[in-house]
Write a structure and sequence with these properties.
The chain is α/β, with parallel strands linked by helices and 247 residues long. Helix content is 34%, strand content 17%. The protein contains ten helices and nine strands. Strands 1-2-4-5-6-7-8-9 form an eight-stranded parallel beta barrel, surrounded by six helices. The chain binds SN-glycerol-3-phosphate and magnesium ion. The site of SN-glycerol-3-phosphate (G3P) has 10 residues, from strand 2.
Length: 247
Amino acid sequence: MTESEIISVPAVIGHRGAAGHAPENTLASLRKAAELGVRWVEFDTKITRDGAAVLFHDHTLERTTDGRGEVAETTLADLRELDAGTWFDDTFAGERVPTLLDAMAALARLGLGANVEIKPSPGREAETGRVVAGVLKASWPATLPPPLISSFDKEALGAVRDAAPEFPRALLVFRLPSDWRSPLEALGCVALHCQAKHLSAAKAGAVLAGGFALRSFTVNDKARAEKLFGWGVHGVISDYPERILAR
Ligand code: G3P
Ligand code: MG
């Protein structure tokens, strides 16, 4: 099945919520995206030492919290104590690292669809895919369209396919590999998400001709987005989605 037979994803997706305006991967960032008029957001997920699925990008805590060390070595209870907002701006002081369950409740309240990226810590690829897929399967809000699950990590995506085959999947790549079709087919993906700077009209055309949905990240410039849309790219993932929504 093609992606459009399963879900309808809008052309503009907020990156890590709306990472240009609020601390990435927090509930404040999801709220900001909704406020900007975005209908879908992308966010990153990984698991804590004790196996809880949370919204987090880096393997380590330093850049986006006041903690130290690795997410994979931190319990959920300890992670919950950290400030995930002040690094971005003092006005976000006290913002916490949300669990995936917290985020889903917020998405339901805000009416936001989601591209859930799986960002496994090294050595926990399949486990992260299994855990995130399990949480989504058990508790995804019935009022929302099914989530689109993506990852750079093929092992994690394979685990998602096995645990929750009903959710559509996208493979993330920076540069389009020469044999891009094989991993998409092997993992049963409906979409390819690639870095905008490595895309060309010819590459986009080839992926689209294969019947796959195609999106680009991270696109913060309206002219760039228009060029990509002109090549047939279905969507862009942006820190400043309002710049591109104003089409
Ligand atoms: O899902 C698109 C994009 O978020 C992938 O890169 O590092 O921002 O998670 P990154
Ligand atoms: Mg991401």
